[in-house]
Amino acid sequence: MDAIESSKVSDGIDAPLWMFWKRRRYMVVAMAFLGYFNVYSLRVNLSVAIVAMTELREVVHPNGTVGFEREFDWSSSVQGYVLSSFFYGYIFTQVLGGYLSNKFGGTNVFGVGIGGTAILTLLTPVLTRQGAGWLIAVRILEGAFEGVTFPCGHAMWSVWAPPSERSRISSIAFTGAFAGTVVAMTLSGVLAESWGWESVFYFFGVVACLWYMAWLLLVRKSPEHDFRMSQKEKDFIMVTSGRQEKDVENVKHPWMAMLTSKPVIAMSIASIVEDWGYYTLLTGLPTFLKTVLNFDLQESGFLSALPYLAMGILLSASGYLADWLQIRGYLTTTQVRKYFTCGAFLGQLICMMIGALVLSPAPTILCVTIAVGLGGVAWCGYLLNPLDLSPKSSGVLMGISNGFAAISGVIGPIVTGYITTNNTEDEWRTVFYIAVGIYIVGTLVYWFWASGELQPWSLEMTQQKNQTRNETNYISSIESKQV
Predict the structure, then answer these.
(1) Residues 195 and 268 in one domain
(2) Which domain covers residue 338, as residue numbers?
(3) I need a labelling partner for 142 at 20 to 30 A (CA). Which of 17, 103, 205, 332 fits?
(4) Region 333-359 average pLDDT
């Protein structure tokens, strides 16, 4: 059942939409929002903390003289490796996350991914004092745990979200990532200045552990396993999603067809492109604001958060707009995905170009804020593609595209670190220009190759063909007997 048809079916619950606790699927969305909040707060806190860890501080020596020292005297290239190390582990658990979510349930694997990252975050200060290598090692492990979270998210929504609500439900949940980014970047500067850089990891680690305990208590594997859900809501989700309670969960994915599919390739390239701009700024923006635009640590943390606040707002609004355009029949799913993704990419490359040319505080911050904010619009395009192409394989498809995208998280900070060895304006202009070129490539590829339709190789399409074939054979057998 498509989005337009499912929108005409009521879930039978007599309560306004704002009373989300009356609908169990909305409770899952609310908890997933907080889950992605923790995913990104645990991911980005190092971007601000590393500024405090490596900045020159006044030190009074035993003989009474005053000097300036860094607690961790790491070069810009070493800092680049530290900031990118998270993605070394993140790459290798993307497809695994999709596979495990099919086998054990997206909600179960999602919780374990965040809970494991939280525990490792609490160990970070102790291990960091043993050397940069230890910090890199723990960040690799954190990346491995968090690598499963986005593939699990798509697997969750393939069973929890009716087709007519998938864009808005996904966008609301994913908005938690930007809320986490905003809070982490803003609060990390305050925590580091007031109680030392170690407090950044202790605070967000504890918050994530508390969330994991709540997740275990409140969220179940699927509507079929949720004893708190009303039968009306359960039937609504099952019918509109075209599922049955006895559907086989250990599915066999058409790997070769998926990996050679043009829409999957387009989706993966779009993920690489968006994540290049996103993670280059996510890891480098605090340093850029402090060294080039001369803001202090707390100001850098606050201003670094602004673009992600804009991204979260635009993501939520775009999710509702995408569903509305499809339900009203103004645009097809393919058109929505292409217009949102390519339109956002064009806006981003224009803003990045202007910001690089001007490179003064107010205009550059405005351009960067708009550029990153438009990423929220793009997310309602390419990031939701897996649910369009094959819902039953959506977790694996998300793992494939997000796995390729993680390459940007690995390479981007390292490239930035090597380019900005002296943190001059010209060096940072080069960083911006590289992002512009990558956005151009992504726009062209996605426009010509992307699709928002169920693919011929999808498990759903295969089942439909088999069902039609069986019905045809059955009718033929009946007719032959009559003859």
Answers:
(1) no
(2) 249-471
(3) 103
(4) 91
Tokens (6 digits) for 150? 């986005």
For residue 67, the model assigns a pLDDT of 64
Contacts of 460 (CB under 8 A, 6+ apart): 242, 390, 391, 392, 454
What is the average pLDDT value for the chain, to the nearest integer?
83
**Residue 6: pLDDT band with limits 50, 70, 90:** very low
Residues near 375 by Cβ (< 8 Å), separated by ≥ 6? 274, 277, 278, 311, 314, 344, 348
Q: Are residues 273 and 407 in the same domain?
A: yes
The pLDDT tens digits for 367-376 are 888 888 899 8
Does 245 score more than 60 pLDDT?
no
Q: Which of 192, 216, 240 is the last residue of a domain?
A: 216
What local confidence, expressed as pLDDT, does residue 8 receive? 47
Structural domain count, the chain: 2
Residues 64 and 41: their CA atoms lie apart, in Å, by 40
Residue 320 counted as domain residue: yes
On whether both 211 and 253 belong to a single domain, the answer is no
Could you report how far apart the first and last alpha carbons of the chain are, in Å? Answer: 37
